[in-house]
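We emphasize that the prediction below concerns an isolated chain of 230 residues; any contacts that depend on oligomerization or on bound cofactors are therefore not represented. The input was used exactly as deposited, without trimming of termini.
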Amino acid sequence: MKKNILIVGGTSGVGLELAKHYVKEGHNVGLTGRQNPELEGATFQKFSMTDDPVQLALDIDQVLDGFNNVHTLIYAAGFLQRGHIDELADDQLGTMVNVGLLAPMMLIQRLKRRSDHPLKIMLITSSSQYTPRELEPAYCATKSALGMLGASLVRDKSLGKVLVAAPSGIRTPFWDDTEEDTETMLDPSWVSEQIVELSGGSFKYKFAKLLRDPARVEVVETLDDNLVTI
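Result of the prediction step, given as a C-alpha cell string:
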C-alpha cells in the first residue's frame, strides 16, 4: 500500500536517508528542512524553527496544508547546542524546546485531528535521551522528553504504532564546525536501515538504542497492541 510519509528534518542525515528509502519503495514522501535536498520523487517544504511558538504553530499549519492525509510522521529534526545552563540565552533555550519537543507535539496533535486513520509515529531521538551531559542540558532534556512523549502516546489506542529510536552519534552535518571525532560514529545509511527494520512488523510501541563501536541495535522495550510487555 502506498503511504503518505512526512519526514520533519528530512533534508540531511538520517532523515534524508529514510526519505530515499521510502521514495524508492514508491511511497509519497514529504520533506521539511531549511534547504531543499532536491530529492527526486519527494515533495519539499521549507520549515525553519526559531524560539517563537506562535510562528511555529503557523508554520506547522502551512506544512500540513501542503501535505495532506499523512499516514506516517517521522520526526528527525534536531541541532547541537552546548554550554552550561547559565551560558545559554533565553532565545537559545526557546529554540531548543521548540525544535526538540513543542514542534513534534504540535505536529502529532494536528495530524491526529486531521486523520481518519491511526497515525504511525517514528521519533528519532539520541543517546542524549538517556545519557546526561554537562554541556548539553537543554538538548538532553528535550531528547529525554521526546522519548517520554512517545512512551505516553502509545497509551492512546486511537494512534497507530509508535517507534522511538535513539542513535548514538551519527556521521552527519550535525557535527560541522565542531572538533568532535566522528570516526567511530554510525553511518547514516546504516541507521536508516535499522530504523526501517525496527518500524516493521506488529507492535504498538518500541524503544530501541542504536549503539556504536561496534554498531548494534538494542531493543529496550516492546509493547503489543494490548500494551503487554513482550
